[in-house]
Amino acid sequence: MSISTNTELETAVGNYLARSDLSTYIPDFVKAGEARFTYGSGDRENDPFYCPPLRIRAMETSADVTVTDGVGAIPTGFLGARRVYWNSSPKRKIEQTSPEDFYGKWLGSESGTLPSMYVIEGESFILGPSVSGTMKVLYYKAFDPVATASPVPWLLTNHPMVYVYAALLESAPFIRNDQRLTVWASLLRSAAQGLNKANMMDRWSGSALAVRSDVGNP
């Protein structure tokens, strides 16, 4: 059957389960499955139910973050930064660092110069040196929950079986169908790894990587 809406997704999961008494639980299976492929689960080496976190170009978005006295709010759905820079002229790249390195260098530092480092604490970016202005962030953003998203997430339109496998994996312990755990986990892991791999191939396709000078051609 076609899967292009949340209703069709829940119907598909119900069809796989072949149970008429689970309709009220299927939304919970879907929600738990979304968390599993969004944040990843288990250990790659030792967990048979391991699932890598999904990180693909369709999850990338950008935001302007207002920074006041070195503190800016993390955007909604933030999963990790790909590029961060200060909106100055010229632009200045800002690198993430460890709290130990950050506070060892910037604790008690004066404001006034452009920031070069940041750490994440709670729901905030902390920049050093402490400044006010605008930070540009390109980051991975979690897909909106399929139950309420409008329009539906890119992933449901293009790879709906990721949702199906994730929901079925979450359903197995609930219905005590332990023999299916490995099956659904394997299918979900394969789908997520395939998408991540395709994303890397697309990102780095073309000519071979080359070392280039940042000061222009000789």
Folded structure, characterized:
The chain is an alpha+beta fold and 218 residues long. Helices cover 36% and strands 20% of the residues. The chain is built from 6 helices and 8 strands. It has an 8-stranded mixed beta sheet with strand order 4-3-8-1-2-7-6-5. Strand 5, helix 3 (99-106) and strand 6 (117-121) form a beta-alpha-beta unit. The termini are far apart.
Looking at this protein, list some descriptive labels.
alpha+beta, 218 residues, 6 helices, disordered C terminus
What's the helical proportion of residues?
A: 25-40%
Class based on secondary structure composition and strand pairing: alpha+beta
Taken from the alpha-carbon principal axes, the silhouette is: elongated
Q: What are the secondary-structure elements, in order, as H or E?
A: HHEEEEEHEEEHHH
Low-confidence segments, ≥5 residues, pLDDT <50? 213-218
Number of strands: 8
Side by side, the strands of the main sheet go: 4-3-8-1-2-7-6-5
CA-to-CA gap between the ends?
60 Å
Strand content: 15-25%
Mean pLDDT: 90
Largest sheet: 8 strands, mixed
Number of helices: 6
Report Rg: 22 Å
Write the layout of secondary structure elements.
Layout lengths: L5 H12 L8 H14 L20 E9 L2 E3 L4 E9 L5 E2 L1 E2 L2 H8 L10 E5 L2 E5 L4 E9 L12 H5 L1 H15 L6 H24 L14
Parallel strand pairs: 5-6
Antiparallel strand pairs: 1-2, 1-8, 2-7, 3-4, 3-8, 6-7
Helix pairs in contact: 1-5, 2-5, 5-6
